[in-house]
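Q: Could you fold this chain for me?
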Amino acid sequence: MIRRDMPEVLEIERRSFEFPWFEEDFVRCLRQRNCIGMVAEQGERVVAFMIYELHKTRLHILNFAVAPELRRHGVGQQMVEKLVSKLSSQRRTRISLEVRETNLEAQLFFKHSSFRATSVLRDFYDDSTEDAYLMQYYYQENQTTDAASNRVRRLAG
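A: Sure. Below is the predicted structure, expressed as structure tokens.
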């Protein structure tokens, strides 16, 4: 994410959230050393963005949105996969984020991406009394599909 992406990022943000971040929120966050901004582009147009923090043992997604007209086209999934590729057994082993209890679309998206809700954060947001779900993705060294493990079990006995 670079400075000239900001107008498109802010437009996606405004169209995606009831309580959107302002430009100052993005700038303040991105000035921190451990904060990274990533965009997905279609041609020259920004169609999605993700803001995440680097911590010693995890990555923490702070903000993530796809342009409404491009949702369910694989853009968000590609961005999550890019983030998952940054995990390893030696360093950062999980990705975490908070999702509003009323944001069912995001909850289902992250569940489909192998994130699990691990706790409820009561009265989490400053702008409402809404709770959040802490969702986490854990790195697994050797992921096997159910079909492969079923095949092995059948062969073994």
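A (continued): Residues 6-16 form the longest helix (11 residues).
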